[in-house]
Write a structure and sequence with these properties.
A five-stranded mixed sheet has the order 2-1-3-6-5, sandwiched between helices. It has eight helices and seven strands; from the N terminus they run H-H-E-H-E-H-E-E-E-E-H-H-E-H-H. It has one domain: Collagenase (Catalytic Domain). Helices cover about 35% and strands about 15% of the residues. It is an alpha/beta fold.
């Protein structure tokens, strides 16, 4: 009788152990493969800048025929990235043509939904992937006096309001590549942690107290707020005829996190 009871409890224990293993395997298989690209803004700055974990960077640009950025802006953007990041296996730009998305004006929630449907490049293995979407619509935050030109909203995700950039340069179309380059570089600067996005910059003194997470140096790329800018400020920037550059303090912050 004792042997029967012992056999019964041994069988019960073995069954529970096997069931537990199956549940663990199920949990592991349910891990979101896109989770590395759904973190907070600025949290992947060191991974993007250095080659310690990821030795190659892939940037996916998604746009429709109506929201396609200029080739000049794309090349300026590539040069900006290569001047700042260490990637032993290089930087690649993947261009994806998509359909115009309905529903403008867009909230960030809308943009996240669009990214979920359109994004094909995700971080895996030795590759770190970044996504930049050029929308044919405008931001739901736009007012009669201010516009949103672009927004970095996750650790590897950005949106550029291409239709707004074209609207603001319709009187001088030659200035479009300058504005595109400035906004693309600026938003990429935010995913690199500028300015003091996660409160870890070595030169925190240059964060603008009146315009959080932006640089106080008015000639710096990270000075203007691309999520709330008026026509006058856009005009003033374009009159200089050149894409703003990072100031020495912002560059030092990037270098402290593994950048060039």
């Amino acid at each position: 009788m004792h042997r029967i009871y012992l056999n019964f409890f041994f069988f019960l224990f073995l069954s529970m152990a096997l069931f537990s293993c199956k549940e663990d395997d199920s949990d592991n298989s349910a891990v979101d493969p896109t989770a590395e690209n759904k973190k907070g803004l600025g949290t992947s700055a060191e991974d993007i800048l250095s080659s310690d974990i990821y030795n190659r960077l892939v940037v996916q640009l998604a746009y429709s025929q109506n929201s396609r950025p200029t080739e000049e802006a794309i090349e300026n953007f590539r040069a900006f990235i290569e001047a700042r990041v260490h990637k032993s296996s290089g930087v690649s730009i993947v261009q994806t043509i998509v359909e115009d998305q309905p529903g403008s004006p867009f909230s960030i929630g809308d943009i996240i939904d669009i990214e979920t449907n359109l994004r094909t490049e995700y971080t895996s293995g030795d590759k770190l992937a970044v996504f930049m979407y050029f929308t044919n619509g405008r931001s739901s935050n736009d007012t009669e006096t201010s516009f949103t030109l672009g927004t970095a909203y996750r650790n590897t995700s950005m949106v550029i309001y291409e239709s707004t950039l074209k609207l603001l340069t319709q009187q001088n179309t030659a200035s479009l590549p300058v504005l595109e380059s400035a906004v693309m570089n600026h938003e990429f600067g935010h995913i690199l942690g500028l300015t003091n996005i996660v409160n870890d910059d070595i030169h925190q003194v240059h964060e603008d107290p009146s315009q959080a997470k932006h640089c106080i140096v008015d000639e710096c790329l990270m000075y203007f707020d691309a999520t709330n800018i008026g026509r006058t400020n856009v005009r003033r920037m374009l009159e200089k005829g050149a894409v703003p550059q990072l100031d020495p303090l912002c560059i030092a912050d990037l270098q402290a996190k593994g950048g060039k």
